[in-house]
Design brief:
The complex is a heterodimer of chains A (about 230) and B (about 120). Chain A is elongated and about 60 Å long. Chain A is of the alpha+beta class. Chain A has a 5-stranded mixed beta sheet with strand order 2-1-5-3-4. In chain A, strands 6-7 form a two-stranded antiparallel ribbon. Chain B is mainly alpha-helical. Chain B is about 75% helix and about 0% strand. The longest helix of chain B is centred in the C-terminal third of the chain and has 27 residues. The relative contact order of chain B is 0.12. Chains A and B meet through helix 10 of A and helix 1 of B.
Chain lengths: ~230, ~120
């Protein structure tokens, strides 16, 4: 089958504004979008720029916007799209460097604000044990691959770029609710700001965008409940 | 990040919780008020029936609470919307100041209407 790819092109070093370029490809329904981008780059337009690394949904580098939805190019098949015209854009809300590559500096700066690491003040006797029930609390949260699809799809982030965003919130949850972490308050205080957890209005865009099917909104609501318990 | 200490005790948690509590109170109070004013012709919205009802201190307390809860919920909600946008601190503080003045004006107006009876 033949599919038309309409791809947004933009080079921040020379273009005044983005423009679109179309490519027609003969594809199999089981081809991945990433395979198609590779073919376009290798056979038609060598200057097309996008991120890819593992190509298997683990590294999170190839998050792009396909027909208006944030997805991982390596996880989506042609047959999933169900259209003969596929519109490809960089993920929204982040500055474009070139074509489908966005600047994630701000995304990772916000990520660091929540102290995304296990804070342990004392060395463990041998190893840090965790019960099955305690591990279950962070089962979903540990699956985040930091692709940025959630934060970039969040209208609260579009309206207020200072908002830390759902990915940072999820990471705060991942450590604040980890039974081995000895300073959950430090993670919580980092997000208890007007640009933190309270900017989430449960819009659920992040949940729809997450390629790992993490229910981010539920995790953020747990953080809010924890804050209220802590304050009262 | 920008301003953070506008909620009580430096956390956004009390404001978030009170917004939900006042929301629930308003649903009950507004439904009650609506039924009273529009679906109970015998005790409804004529001046005489309103005057008679407002002689009862419990109704006065109900409406004074209604005014306070409604103004808090409405203005806190608007303030939440304002904070959804990135803006300069002087602008957000100006909007906050205007909202506080507006809230006080609404409260005075509401109290006058309740206490005049």
């Amino acid at each position: 089958m033949q599919v038309t790819f309409s791809i947004q092109r933009y080079d921040s070093s020379k273009d005044k504004k983005p423009y679109r370029q179309e490519f027609k490809l003969d594809v199999e329904p089981t081809d991945r979008i990433l395979d198609c981008l590779d073919r376009i780059k290798w056979d038609f337009e060598g200057s097309l720029t996008y991120r890819r690394s593992c190509s298997h949904g683990i590294c999170g580098s190839d998050a792009i916007n396909i027909n208006g939805k944030n997805m991982l190019a390596c996880q989506v098949l042609i047959q999933d799209i169900k259209k003969k015209r596929i519109k490809i854009d960089p993920i929204p809300g982040m500055p474009i460097i070139k074509d489908l590559v966005v600047d994630t500096t701000d995304f990772f700066a916000k990520y660091e604000v929540v102290k995304p690491y296990l804070i342990a003040k004392n060395p463990p006797p041998k190893e840090r044990f965790q019960s099955v029930a305690d591990r279950a609390l962070i089962d979903e949260a540990v699956n985040c691959i930091l692709c940025g699809a959630c934060t970039s799809s969040c209208p609260s982030m579009w309206g207020n770029p200072n908002y830390l965003g759902p990915a940072a919130m999820l990471k705060a949850y991942r450590f604040a609710f980890d039974s081995r972490d000895e300073a959950p308050a430090e993670h919580l205080e980092a997000i208890d700001t007007s640009d933190g957890v309270w900017r989430c209005h449960t819009i659920f865009n992040c949940v729809e965008a997450c390629p790992k099917e993490i229910n981010l909104t539920w995790h953020i609501s747990q953080l809010k409940k924890k804050m209220v318990e802590r304050e009262l | 990040m920008s301003y953070k200490h506008l909620g009580s005790r430096n956390s956004g948690a009390p404001g978030w919780l009170f917004q939900r509590i006042t929301g629930i109170v308003l649903i009950v109070a507004m439904v009650g008020h609506y039924i009273l004013m529009h679906y109970t012709p015998t005790s409804g919205h004529s001046f005489a029936s309103t005057f008679e009802r407002m002689q009862n201190p419990l109704w006065k307390v109900f409406y004074l609470s209604f005014v306070v809860v409604g103004i808090y919920h409405g203005l806190n909600g608007v303030w939440g919307v304002v904070r959804d946008f990135k803006m300069k601190r002087w602008l957000s503080m100006t909007i906050l100041g205007a909202m506080i003045i507006l809230g006080i004006a609404f409260a005075v107006f509401g109290f006058m209407n309740v206490l005049v009876f």
